[in-house]
Amino acid sequence: xxxxxxxxxxxxxxxxxxxxxxxxxxxxxxxxxxxxxxxxxxxxxxxxxxxxxxxxxxxxxxxxxxxxxxxxxxxxxxxxxxxxxxxxxxxxxxxxxxxxxxxxxxxxxxxxxxxxxxxxxxxxxxxxxxxxxxxxxxxxx
Length: 141
Ligand SMILES: [Zn+2]
Description:
alpha/beta, 5-stranded mixed β-sheet
């Protein structure tokens, strides 16, 4: 897959994913990067950010490069992956809230343009949680 540098003004939306695993050994960005590079033969991890079970935010693919996380939507989106399958933690939703608010301000993205992966692919359950949880801790409304 070719790395295409994109005009970040084209970024219009954020798409939320999960790792679909609660295995402790999968709770790190390097494992996900390894899946994408060696199994999918991509140049880098497909997501732009990864949030581990402790709620720590890790940068993935540079934002100037289109991600590989949602068919048909990669050119104009930012992909965030939250570690987990069924077990998600408040600290992760807090981190997601912090990161998303920052990205919304930076790229002028509207709240209505934040979507779960399954909004675009109904065959998937990803990210396995209701993204309204992102706003449950937002005190700045
Ligand atoms: Zn997904």
